[in-house]
Structure formats: C-alpha cells, structure tokens
Design brief:
The structure holds two protein chains of two kinds. Chain A contains 22 helices and 21 strands. By secondary structure, chain A is α+β, with helices and mostly antiparallel strands. In chain A, helix 13 packs across helix 16 and helix 13 runs antiparallel to helix 20. Classes of the chains: A alpha+beta, B mainly alpha.
Chain lengths: 625, 383
C-alpha cells in the first residue's frame, strides 16, 4: 500500500521533473536566442554605440600664422601664454590650495568665486583656470613651490602678440574673442578662448592665418576622463603672411611724424606694393587681445586725433592743390587749354557776383600750365576748371582712383567723394552751381580723398597711366582659404593721353626742383634720387570777406581743429620713378612747410635703403661669383 | 561495536561516504567558479586583487562547506528542516526590526567574519522545510486544498518579509522555487492556475506596496530607451556591451564598456555582460553549457534518489540555482527588469556563494545517501 503510493508519487514526480527540466531548458534557450539577437543580429549597431560611448573627438586649435614685414621681420607672433590651473580632485582642500597659491599670484575675491563656481560645475578631474598670462617669474615661483601646491599645474597656451606694439597697428589690426555674429559653423570658433582677426590684415586674411583645426580622438571612460589618445590629426597651422610693408621705413616714418596727427603712404608705382602706411597716433593692438578696460576704451574712442582710425584709408580730406594735376590733365584731354596758353592771375577771379581768391594776394600775373602747377596758382585752375566743366574733371579724377575704394586688402577703406552734376543731384537733390566747379578746381568744396587715393593718383601719374592697385600683403587668399602667391602685376592702362600725363609730371618736377616752386625748399638735393611733387593746403574753415579785409589769420593763431590740413604728394626718383608718396598732416598748416619736408625725408630714406640693399646684393653676388 | 551499530542502523562509514561523493560534480562547479575567477581578474584589469583572490578563498570555504554538508546524513537534515526554517524566519524578522530601527534597509547580520543574509539562508531552509512537509504526504493528501495552506504560509511569510526589505529578486526566487517543489510534489495544475490568476489580479494592489525605485525599475524595463541617462542607463549600457561583443568578443580584458566603467557593477550583477563582451557569444554559450551541465547533474541526482525528501531537496536546490542563472542573465540582457540577482558562482560576493555551496552540499548529501530510505515521518523509523 505504502509502496504503491510511493510508486504513484514517484511516477508523478518523474513526469513532472521532466516537465520542469524541459521548462528550464526552454527558458535557457530563450537566453541563447536573446544572446544571438544582441550579439549577432544587432551586433554592428551596438558596436557603433559602444564606440560612440568611448570615443570623444576633441578639437586642436592650430597655431595662428605669423605676420612678417617684407624682409621677414615678425610683426605678429604667438606668445606662450602661461596659465595656472587647479584640479580639484588632486587638492587636499581647494580652499587651502587657493590660499597658498594667492601668496604667489594675487587672487581677488571675484577670482576665487569664479574658480569655486567653475570647480562645482565641472567634474573634479577637469582643470580649472586660476589665472592667465602669468609672468615667467610667477611661473617659476609656482614651480618651486609645487610640493606645497597639490593639484596645481601650469599650462602653456598660445596667445597673439604684437612685439612692435603700436607700430603698424592699423595695418595689422588685432585679434579678439569670437562674437556671436562671427560664428560660421567652423567648430574652431566655438572653442573657448579662440581669437579671430577683427581688424586690419588679421581680419582680411583671417582664414589663411587661422589654419585648419586638428582633431584628437580620445578614449574616455563613463565619467569623461581621458584614458588614451586613439588617433590625432594635427590639422594645418595657419599660414605665415608676409606683408609688403618695410618695417624699418615704417618705423622711421612714424618717428618722423612724431606727435602729429597724420598719414603717410609710400607705394611702389609699378607693383602696387605699399611699403609704408603710417597713421598717427596709433594704438597698442595687444590691448585688444588681452581685453580692454572701460577707461582704456573711452580714451581711444574719445581722442580727437582718432588713434583707432587708419587715416591712410579711412581719413577723408579735401586734396587741395594736390588735385591740380587732375584738373590740368582734364583740360588737356578736353583740349580746352594748351600747356603754353596763359591765364592772367590778378589774385582773384570773379564769377557772377562771387569773387574767388588766389592764395597769393597780389596774384601771379600771366601764368601757363607749368607755372600754374609750379606756383600752384589758384586762378589758373579756376579758369581751367571753368572751361573743362565739373563732369570731365570728375571723370579724370575717377580714372586716377578717386571717388571709390582703391580695393586695398584692408578693411574699413572709405571711398572719398568726387562730385559731379549727377552726384549732387542724387545725393543732395540740388543742381550744380558753376562756382562749385571753380572751388573743385583747386581741390576744395565737396571733393574728399583718402591719403591712399592721393598716393595712388601720384603712382598712376608716375607710372605713365597704368591702373596700378595697392596692396599690403604679398600673398593673396584663395577661395579655399589658403594663402597663394600673388600673380605678377598686370594692370590695364588708364586711357589718358600720354602728353597730358607727361605735362603733369613736368609740372610736379618744377614744384620741387625749380627755384620758385612751392616745394623747392623741401627738394631732395641728391640728383640720383630727386623727387617730383605737389603741395596742397586744404582749408577746413570758411574765410569770410571781412576776414580777408582785416587780414587772413595765420594758422598759428587758430585752434588746432580749424587749422589747414597740410598735404604733399610726390614720386621719386624723378627720372625713373619707382615710389609714390602722399603725406597728410591733419591741421598741420601749409603743405610746403609741413608736409613736403616729411615726404622728402621719407623718400630719401626709402631710396637710400634701396641703394644700400642693392650694393649689398651686388657684393654678395660678386663674392659668390 | 561500531560495526554492530552499523548493522542495526544501515549507516555508511565516512570512507564509504567519501567514495560515494560525486567528485566530478565538484569539478564541474570548480570550472564554473574558475570562469568567475577569470572574469574577476579581468574586472580588476588583470589583477587578482581585490576580487578574484577573495572569491577563490570563498569558493574554497564553499567547497569545504559543501563536503561537510554532503557527508552529514540526509536524515539529519530532514530531522532539523523545520528548526532551520524557524531559525531563518527569526533572523529575517530580526533584520526587519533592525532595518526599521537602524538607518534604511539592512539585509544582513554582521557576524564579524561574514555578513549573514537571512534571506539567503531562507532560500535553502525553505527548500528543506517544504521537502520535509511534502515528503510525508501522499498524492491524496496533496490533493486536498487544506493540506496546502501550511506550506503556502511557509512560502508567503518569508517572501513578504523579504519583499519588505525590499528585495524583489529574492522574493520572486522564494516563490518560484517553492512553486517548483509544489509542482513536483504533485499539486494539480489548476491550483497553480488559480494562484496565478489571483496574483495577476493582485498586481495593482502589490504595485502600491512597491517602493518608488522598484516601480521605477519596472517602468524602466518596459521602456529603457526612454531615459538613457537615468534608470535605463544600466540596461542600455549592458545591452551595448553585449551587442558590441559580437560572436567572438573583444578579447579578454579588452571590453571597452566594462573597463571604461560604462557598465555598472561589472564584478557583481553585470559580470555576465562583461564575459559576453570580452568573450563574445561563444563565451556566453560556453558558460551556459556549464550551467546546463550543473542542472543536468541536479536532475540526475534527484532521479537517483530513493527518497521523496531527497528528490525534492535536489530539485529544489537545482531550481533555485536555475532561477539565479536565468534571472541574472535575462536581467542583463534586458529581458526582465533589473532585480539585483547575482550570477551564481561567478558574481563577486560571499553570501550567495556560501548559500549555493550549502545548497549543493545538500544535493551532494542526497547523492551520497541516494539509497537511504526514509519513512513517512522521517528519521530512522523505517526501512
């Protein structure tokens, strides 16, 4: 009985145990199925997810290209920027470490608050910047005290540095932090602390100077700590940018200008290379990289002499008598006057009821074109302008590069104004007044030019009417963001009669090299490097009839802002021209007394240096041969 | 005289017993544990410390425990089955009280040299107690619903206590392994159906008893991608680790998910994931095969046993073991919610290891005493 029951129970057990075992096997099979699904069917998907997990791509900012002058002298370089960082997980106490550190580099309460905040926001192994731009002295003091400063490390980054400070600042421009509207999608721009060019060639050639960012693929763990580097693409360092500027000349010119608020531009009349472009006063571009204090910014912006403005391309001045070559050439081209034809100058000219004065009170007497230019007789050019008409003068001025931007590779260039009937009608909505033609004939009135345009005009006269275009960088930026050598210059002719240009040059020669010329006293005496030029004195205030009676005030008697601008344009050497110069001294007084001597000194320096260099090259060539 | 005693009571000598021990079973368990040592070495980046060395010591102790338990007469285990159960229950209540008095949920009692988890002790004690209960019952008795009230209470009381700790995984294991014993004892299928339906009906009520994090785990299980950085993170990362391991794995100690800490708890609950990531599906299948072999041993021993108690104990322990394996692997593969059940003999941890080795000791005792007949009321009363 008991045995039977046991047997029944045993049978039930056996059957049910088999079912239980089967069920367990079946469940294990689902595990196998699941394993197959995950590890075989979906394997590639999960492999990708695993890589996404562990691989993190970091951007490596490329070093910014240097900017050098035409002789390779560095003008903008990258300086090592020492930063002190703290890694909170390596400190025993962040508070204590910062306290110890503050005995070496002073830390304000603000700094501390920022550091504490950064530390809280980031993971404990991420370094937090304590201070940037440490001096070498600070760095060595921290290194010496390293044992007492756990978790403190020194990091070296690169920051832009302009070793010449204010010299050439207007050409170089500066770099500064990226702003919202600068973002183009280039991830480099989103790197903290990245700087881009904001002015000057730093801005124009930013893409080339910037280079291409590299990437570093690193393996990170679940909390983001870098375990190792998997691969690295160093990217492309920014290209070095050679300028056409000659730094020695730039420095000489800046010193020569001294305290004046002025502009000097020297350019090669054949290639368009700008050798000198000085605008005074200047500023220190390093300040922009570092970040300007509010008071520094206020000083720069509020200064009446506009240190931030590159006067050479953005200063607009009436050209005064330097415009007279244009009027003369317009007259010759139109055939309204011949070089020999004389105009009588009694010291003034009447048109309708208005009376227009010559700068020389007693008048010049009978004046031909040579004498007109040589003595800068205003009445002669009133007459020529009257005969030619404003539109033909404007047309000639435009051919010589006025009234529109020259296209130089610098940002912020202004176009100046070359007035014409149409211009006045469209911009002022008024008809042209015949008297305005006369005023325009001596480079006053609505007419405005930049110093660069004046130098360009002179260059185009000196090279015999070739439409040279100025530039400051030896290389150009290709469409794909690389720097390429500039192609050999190939400029079209201006379509101006050769005889007219030759006449203008003869007149300019007389100004500087013939006794009685307005700049004869400022001539270059060395025959080989003589210059031809033209003075200009641009009036910035209206001289009333009453003042004329009582005697025109001398510049010395006037406040600075009301004094005349002193201008001078020239080219040299006279017989085989190579360089063109324009000098504009804001409120400097007379062109012959103030501007011409500056031009003389600078052009002398330019040519002397060239001679010396040629001799040196000859010597080197002969010793080699 | 000893010989005479043995004649009266057909007891085996120690030497005989040792002869009867299934050394191949111990070898099989050692192989499984060996896989565990390897994975713990990998988890420690090639170091024996801190995990593998201690795990080896524990396994060594475990084998000792298993042998001792295995050599103790099966009738002694049967005799003290209820006592053990009562002790385990008291311990469970004790931790419950301490957990209430102390801070937060505490699941163990610190005995100094080892942390004793009453819920683990209960897993084995319950098997013993139920086996004893059903040992004396014939099919007719088992067929009476009233007869099942006591064993049901024996299951539900500790399950409720464990659930309150809260330890969902152990509660489920207690219920399921007991269910296995009920089934083997001959309880009718429709009764299971009734209990199952009642449980399903009780789910909404039980839901309210779950702690917030338990609810979260269940919700997360239902849709892990919903919250990849929160609770779903573990499951997602585990699946990524498994899947990226592919067929042949990334190589020993080369699992990126495990070694870069994307995988949580890689030396404990998620150790199977690491194994499958580093050794691939091939490695996973190899381990599953070893586990299946262990199960086969358990079933074979149960079939060989001539006592109902022995059979129920052997399959009760085997089923508990199976539940460990299945719940853990299903969990790391995202088939069921994360319930915190270790991978038997492999996950780093002392209590589960000792519990299992004690259980296998009982299985061994069943094997060694396979031919011992036990009377209805147990002990030495019958032949």
């Amino acid at each position: 009985m008991s045995n039977n029951r046991d047997n029944d129970r045993s049978k039930v057990f056996s059957r049910r145990a088999a079912l239980l075992g089967g069920a367990q096997l079946a469940l294990l099979s689902t595990l196998v199925g699941r394993m197959y699904y995950l590890q075989v069917v979906e394997s590639s998907k999960y492999a990708m997810l695993a890589d996404e997990n562990r691989i993190s791509i970091r951007l490596l900012p490329p070093p910014r290209g240097r900017i050098v002058d035409r002789n390779g002298v560095p003008m903008a370089v990258n300086q090592l920027n020492y930063r002190v960082l703290v890694i909170s997980e390596q400190t025993s106490s962040l508070e204590a470490t910062l306290k110890a550190l503050s005995e070496i580099v002073p830390l304000s309460d603000n700094d501390r608050a920022r550091i504490q905040r950064d530390v809280r926001r980031r993971r404990s192994f991420v370094p937090v910047t304590v201070r940037e731009n440490l001096t070498w002295e600070d760095v060595s003091r921290i290194e010496v005290n390293a044992p007492d400063l756990p978790g403190v490390m020194i990091d070296v980054g690169q920051s832009r540095h302009y070793p010449l400070e204010s010299l050439g600042a207007h050409i170089l421009g500066y770099v500064a932090a990226v702003s919202e509207q600068d973002l183009t999608g280039d991830p480099l721009l989103e790197l903290p602390g990245f700087r881009i060019g904001k002015a000057g060639v730093e801005r124009i050639y930013d893409l080339g100077l910037r280079g291409k960012g590299g990437t570093s693929q690193v393996e990170v763990n679940a909390v983001g700590r870098v375990i190792r580097e998997l691969s690295r693409d160093d990217g492309e360092p920014g290209a070095e940018l050679p300028l056409t500027i000659d730094l020695d000349l730039q420095e000489y010119t800046a010193q020569r200008l001294g305290e004046e608020s002025a502009s000097v531009v020297v350019m090669d009349i054949h290639t368009g290379e700008v050798l000198v472009m000085v605008s005074t006063p200047s500023f220190d571009p390093n300040a922009f990289n570092r970040g300007l204090r509010a008071d520094e910014w206020k000083d720069l912006v509020g200064n009446a002499r506009a240190p931030l403005t590159n006067k050479s391309i953005a200063g607009q001045y009436p050209p005064g008598s330097t415009f007279k070559m244009i009027v003369a050439m317009a007259g010759l081209e139109a055939g309204v006057i011949s070089p020999e034809q004389r105009v009588f100058c009694p010291g003034h000219m009447s048109l309708g009821t208005a009376r227009f004065h010559c700068w020389k009170k007693g008048g010049h007497g009978a004046v031909d074109m040579m004498a007109g230019l040589k003595h800068s007789c205003d009445v002669y050019f009133y007459e020529v302008a009257r005969r030619v008409g404003i539109d033909r003068v404007a047309d000639m001025a435009k051919r010589f590069g006025m009234g529109e931007v020259t296209g130089i590779d610098l940002p912020g260039e202004r176009s100046g104004i070359v007035p014409s009937r149409k211009w006045k009608q469209t911009t002022l909505g008024q008809p042209w007044h015949p008297g305005e033609t006369l005023v325009n004939g001596i480079g006053q009135g609505f007419l405005l030019t930049t110093p660069l345009q004046l130098a360009l005009m002179t260059a185009r006269i000196a090279n015999g009417g070739i439409a040279v275009v100025p530039h400051v960088a030896r290389d150009r930026l290709s469409a794909d963001g690389h720097m390429k050598p500039r192609p050999a210059p190939d400029f079209p002719p201006l379509q101006v009669p050769k005889a007219a240009i030759a006449m203008a040059r003869r007149g300019m020669n007389a100004v500087t090299n013939e006794p009685g010329g307005t700049a004869f006293n400022a001539r270059i005496k060395d025959e080989a490097i003589r210059m031809s030029g033209k003075t200009g004195t641009a009036q910035v205030r209206r001289i009333t009839a009453r003042e004329r009676e009582t005697g025109v005030k001398k510049n010395d008697e006037l406040p600075w802002k009301e004094r005349d601008h002193a201008l001078f344009v020239a080219y040299a050497p006279e017989d085989a021209p190579r360089y063109a110069i324009s000098v504009v001294v804001e409120h400097g007084g007379g062109g012959s007394a103030v501007a011409a001597p500056i031009a003389r000194d600078v052009l002398t320096e330019v040519q002397r240096r060239e001679q010396a260099r040629a001799k040196l090259a000859e010597k080197a060539g002969s010793t080699r041969g | 005289m000893r010989r005479g005693g043995a004649f009266r009571r057909p007891e085996m000598l120690l030497r005989e017993k040792l002869w009867h021990v299934s050394w191949s079973f111990i070898l099989l368990l050692s192989m499984v544990a060996g896989v565990g040592f390897l994975m713990l070495v990998s988890a420690a980046n090639g170091n024996v410390d801190p995990w593998a060395s201690r795990q080896m010591v524990r396994f060594g102790v475990g084998v000792g425990v298993m042998l001792v338990v295995g050599l103790v007469d099966i009738r002694i285990w049967m005799k003290h089955a209820y006592a053990l159960y009562v002790i385990a229950a008291i311990l469970l209540v004790l931790v419950e009280l301490r957990g209430t008095i102390g801070m937060g949920a505490q699941r163990w009692i610190d005995l100094g040299f080892v942390q004793l988890q009453p819920s683990e002790v209960m897993k084995i004690s319950l098997v013993l107690a139920l086996a004893r209960y059903f040992h004396g019952a014939n099919l007719q008795e088992v067929g009476r619903p009233v007869f099942l009230i006591v064993p049901l209470l024996m299951v539900l009381a500790p399950a409720a206590l464990v659930l309150k700790q809260p330890d969902l995984g152990t509660a489920i294991m207690l219920i399921l392994s007991s269910g296995g014993i009920f089934w083997l004892a001959g309880v009718r299928i429709w009764k299971f159906a009734v209990v199952f339906s009642a449980s399903v009906a009780a789910i909404p009520v039980a839901w309210n008893f779950l702690r917030e994090y338990q609810k979260q785990r269940v919700l997360t299980f239902l849709n892990p991608e919903n919250d990849p950085l929160g609770s779903g993170y573990h499951i997602m990362q585990s699946k990524i680790a498994l899947g990226s391991g592919g067929l042949f794995g990334k190589g020993f100690m080369l699992g990126t998910q495990s070694h870069l800490n994307f995988l949580p708890e890689k030396q404990t609950d998620f150790i199977f994931t690491m194994l499958a990531e580093e050794l691939g599906m091939v490695g996973g299948l190899a381990l599953l095969s070893l586990y299946t072999l262990v199960l086969i041993y358990g079933f074979a021993i149960a079939y060989r046993s001539r006592s109902q108690f022995g059979r129920l104990v052997a399959l009760g322990v085997t089923t508990t073991f199976f539940l460990y394996v299945f719940i853990n692997i299903a969990m790391v593969m995202g088939l069921i919610p994360v319930v915190g059940v270790p991978l038997p003999l492999i996950s780093y941890g002392g209590t589960a290891m000792l519990t299992l080795m004690f259980g296998f000791g009982l299985v061994m005792s069943v094997y060694v005493h396979r031919d011992v007949q036990i009377g209805r009321r147990g002990a030495w009363d019958s032949g």
